[in-house]
Amino acid sequence: MRKTVLVTTLVVFSNVAGNFSLSWGVKHPASGAFALLSPWVVLGVALLIVWTLARMALLSWADLSFVLPVTSAGYVLTALAGKFFLNEQVSLERWAGTVLIMLGVILVGATDPRTAAGREKQP
């Protein structure tokens, strides 16, 4: 279970940090440099590669019906990062959707990550 929590956390935070870095990099290119060569864009791409690999690992031992809802906590954190770090305007409707996502994450997070019969329990 500890492995699942650790990798789930890695998936969520690498997704949020990667998307934030990409957005920051293309909105604030370094001294006239081409946006794709911005260190922030490169960092964002690297973090999203980590996100993809970690998500693949997580999917190899946890149910899809667990992984997708639980890792959607990244959507909540991304909305918060956009609001507070990128000064984006987030409408009431978006906040309502964000709250609904978070409620779903809490509900799904309280369940066992694996339900398929015949698989041994995780340590």
Structure commentary:
The chain is mainly alpha-helical. The protein has one domain. The chain contains five helices and no strands. The model has no long low-confidence stretch (mean pLDDT 88).
* Cα radius of gyration in angstroms: 17 Å
Task: Work out the helix count.
Answer: 5
Terminal CA distance reads: 6 Å
What is the H/E string? HHHHH
Q: What gross morphology would you assign?
A: flat
Strand content: under 5%
Instruction: Give the number of DSSP strands.
Output: 0
The poorly predicted ranges are: none
Structural class: mainly alpha
Biggest sheet, open or closed, and with what strands and sense? none
Q: Write down the domain tally.
A: 1
Helix content, binned percent: over 70%
Question: What is the fold's blueprint, element by element?
Answer:
Blueprint: H1 2-27, H2 39-61, H3 64-71, H4 73-85, H5 92-109
Helix pairs in contact: 1-2, 1-4, 3-5, 4-5
Structure at a glance:
It contains five helices and no strands. By secondary structure, it is mainly alpha-helical.
Q: Any key phrases for this structure?
A:
0% strand; mainly alpha; 123 residues
